[in-house]
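Sample 1 of the test manifest.
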Amino acid sequence: MSDYRWKTAITKVQPNKISVRGYPVDQMMGKVSFAQAIYLLLKGKMPSRNVGKMMDAILVSSIDHGASPPSVLAARTVASTGSELNSSVAAGVLAISRYHGGAIEEGMKLFIKIAQRMEERNITKEEASRQILQEMKKKGKRASGFGHRLHKSDPRKDKLFSMAEELKIAGKYVRIVLCVEKELEKMVGRSLPINVDGAIAALLCDLEFPPQIGNAFFVMARVPGLVAHVHEEKTRMKPMRKIHPQDFEYDGPEEKNK
Amino acid sequence: MSDYRWKTAITKVQPNKISVRGYPVDQMMGKVSFAQAIYLLLKGKMPSRNVGKMMDAILVSSIDHGASPPSVLAARTVASTGSELNSSVAAGVLAISRYHGGAIEEGMKLFIKIAQRMEERNITKEEASRQILQEMKKKGKRASGFGHRLHKSDPRKDKLFSMAEELKIAGKYVRIVLCVEKELEKMVGRSLPINVDGAIAALLCDLEFPPQIGNAFFVMARVPGLVAHVHEEKTRMKPMRKIHPQDFEYDGPEEKNK
Amino acid sequence: MSDYRWKTAITKVQPNKISVRGYPVDQMMGKVSFAQAIYLLLKGKMPSRNVGKMMDAILVSSIDHGASPPSVLAARTVASTGSELNSSVAAGVLAISRYHGGAIEEGMKLFIKIAQRMEERNITKEEASRQILQEMKKKGKRASGFGHRLHKSDPRKDKLFSMAEELKIAGKYVRIVLCVEKELEKMVGRSLPINVDGAIAALLCDLEFPPQIGNAFFVMARVPGLVAHVHEEKTRMKPMRKIHPQDFEYDGPEEKNK
Amino acid sequence: MSDYRWKTAITKVQPNKISVRGYPVDQMMGKVSFAQAIYLLLKGKMPSRNVGKMMDAILVSSIDHGASPPSVLAARTVASTGSELNSSVAAGVLAISRYHGGAIEEGMKLFIKIAQRMEERNITKEEASRQILQEMKKKGKRASGFGHRLHKSDPRKDKLFSMAEELKIAGKYVRIVLCVEKELEKMVGRSLPINVDGAIAALLCDLEFPPQIGNAFFVMARVPGLVAHVHEEKTRMKPMRKIHPQDFEYDGPEEKNK
């Protein structure tokens, strides 16, 4: 045993046996979904059936948002130089940062702060929200997870919340985010509806994930989207083209009637 | 309409409506798993229930392989400098390349070449495999997807193949990979069993994915693993530690008795 | 001594002493330029005064080319999401690939192939160039390092060649690249002048660098340019802006009359 | 003129003419060193001869520090998977972060804070240093740029300071860093000598660079080192080797007797 010896609690690899957090990978295959395995990997315990369904829905909700996000533009720009798929995807991941995806982590921190304030001062969520929003306003900081340039009523958010109620996952933090939405509207004088990042932030809090993992959810959910864009860029477009950040149109399959 | 206008067939984004390959994201949530949505995103059509199950199993099979793969070591090394989670994960993605994960793409190309040879020369898969393995041998090239340093009988491979049979997905390419395994053993004089990458390669061929997407499967499957390692590095380890590439031990939960 | 022990011939680090290729760093400071130290680092020997001047000129020639190259657009796109400077620069480096900067390596390989053909078949450079250009044409491959979308007569190329003559560095490979330019014009029927990448490729061959290092020269030269663009993006622009790939104008200092 | 039009003050590109901050690149070649051109690029003005020499020395001082820094280990780890040179270097750049190279930016911020405190409160540098060091101590923060695991008396630091005096560049900030070193020793009870990052931080302040560019200096200086390590890894080592982070030895050229 050398001075370098270190420990890891994630995966045990032995000859012909790989176990993630104690669960043999081959035994999980066919029984748990990829999203459930992700929960196990990150939380260290197997999700209930309901939590597993929520995980799938959260990851599906953010799988792609078209060609305009900076992560897609960075990935396509790199792909257009002939760079490998993995390098192009990596460039996209580098763009999932403070202003792009970062609202999940920021939102989680805000909601946790409100919950702590409620406890510390023994006040209602409305009071705690008002106090903290006022403190943020004074510092010129905006609440993350509210408002969207394009979606005034994001259908992904509604679905996340209705599923969370049905699956009995919605808890303290879903109530807090809804409360912040109301207090924010009173304060600002106009509606700043919860966006998909804000909804995910609240759900990840109710699922007891730490805020430091918030950005990771966006990364994990969006990597398949980046793969699709990089593959399209490499197979459909000419190398070194000038990639306009908004002047594109969708020419894929028509919308399915559900 | 400017000179820059371009087209994309992946996702249509309109106010309050996001549709991937024609399917509204909010309608997919709660109905399709993340893995099924990935299939839709990459192939442009919704998978059957069986194909969806196969997708989940493929992605689960490669979700993590402990701390020794270079992608994990690169990600942990970057994380230990205080770099952000997304940057650390990106460094890991950069290591998913020719010799690490690359066997999927190489395997796919090999199996497709054998299938083409069978058609072109109207020969059996055994003959085609022998011909092509001989040609590779002359060039000093080795078949990708066979043999493993540690796993002589990879349980993930067995599970992938048994599921593929059950789900009626195993087709021409599963038969080809099994044939290559036999011919390779005759040629080399010792067993070089199909590894998990070789099995995934055959299945992706039977699912009609192009080889260029092979590496992407490894990237998508392993990103959650990289996230788990980066998070552990950031929360459990001291910054700037010297990370030994093999001298570590697992101290996580004991193996569950299924 | 463990099984892991490995060797490196680049830099020896001892307490209070750091030596690159045998030269103490502190003794190089003040005596050799950064470009000379780069030569030492990569070639393992100290450059002559003339070679050092050539190195400085090569690196200066590619230090920046405005905001339109994909490396700059990728770096700015990532920077605009609030990503750190180093991550943004890394995204730019990922774009320095086959079609962007890659002409140096491809050019070097071409010129070396011509030189080898001359020797093998004991033919003139004109004949060797013709043969190889014809072979490339049959395969649909184009010679790298010739022609430029914007610069018909690149002043950087002229300066590189005039300096190479003055400094007695121009040798076999400069003669070969000039010969290829002529043969290419005859073959294609119009002028495809040597561009800055083609000129650098020839000079790096005459300086006896291996082609595998060709792309590195572009990376090393352009990283300061990427830094300048990322810094400008972070300090002058709004986060998450839509970055048009060509619709920008220069508003910096007027041109100096030297 | 579209809505997208934006401005940049770095480089103007016209047919057959490229000017950085007003200076035609071809006219700089042969006249200014790469390091001088970097100064021009980042500061927007041509350096004096003395400042140019200082720039060369700063960049040379950090060009490489052997194989143990995490940036080198990340780059080599990625290179060993068969990833391209530029991708491997990018992984290394991702590791130049808070705890590795970050001391330059942190040091600059500290020295600027001390200078501001001196002005605001009209106190000596000794008093300002003491106040701010005490404030940092209370918050459990350590001063960046002091102390080194290996080098008790870093010869690069001594050379940087002696050159800065000779070249008349040492100013207010060099005096501040020397003062902090003394006050720190009194406070801590043992010597924590200025390290190379601390010295560079002070010089960059005296050269009037903003702290946000601090990390960039480490990136620009070290990229050639990363290139050398990646090239060595790719040409000398076997793919996928296990890279021990410290158990290596130098077998390059012997030290030159200057």
